[in-house]
Amino acid sequence: MKAYASQGYELRPARDEEDVRGEFVLPDAFGERCERDVGQAAGELLMASAEVHGRRIDVLLPHLKAAVGRGVRVRALLPCVEGMKPRKACVVEGAAEELRQAGIDVGFCETCPNLTIVDGQTVWYGGIGAFAFPRAEEQVLRFASAEVACELAAELWG
Question: Which of 26, 30, 47, 81 lies in the 20 to 30 Å Cα band around 12?
Fold first, then answer.
């Protein structure tokens, strides 16, 4: 966050959906807001999640399938299963298979951040991963910046 502040970004609550300055999204609003952005994606959806919960995949998958059906390129990064406890690894592997069957490009990342980029413009970054349910104390920053989106996408997806 300090790096963004040094570049002149300022965080304030958003006034409405057209307000692109940025906002922190709390756990109680996360699911609905994330699913709305997925539903509005028109070109590309990049999603990385440090945690994966099977029930969250079940909730999000219809929205992702609909995006793929609209011609949106969806790419997902999940945490590497190497070194994970068997139960968690099974959840991640099962999620990867479900996502692939839905036409989503799936990759794995050793240090997977919580990051979602919608159409190269809207960025979700922070404590809540798209493929996990949030904990009560977590929040995620949602803002619009094509420049930051491009930099983050290049770091993870090349």
Answer: 47
Q: Determine the structural domain holding residue 63 and report its residue range.
A: 20-157
Q: What CATH number corresponds to the domain at position 84?
A: 3.30.870.10
Residue with structure tokens 């940025």? 22
Put residue 26 in one of left, alpha, beta given phi > 0 → left and psi -120 to 50 → alpha.
beta
Query: How large is the average pLDDT for residues 26-44?
Result: 94
Q: Is 12 within the bounds of a domain?
A: no
13 assigned to some structural domain: no
Q: What is the mean pLDDT of residues 115-128?
A: 96
Contact of 11 with 23, CB cutoff 8 Å: yes
pLDDT in tens, 46-58: 999 999 999 999 9
Mean pLDDT of 93-110: 97
Task: Give the span between the Cα atoms of 102 and 109, in whole angstroms.
Answer: 20
Q: Answer with the residue of higher pLDDT: 1 or 112.
A: 112
Domains: count for the chain: 1
The whole-angstrom separation of Cα 101 and Cα 142 is: 29
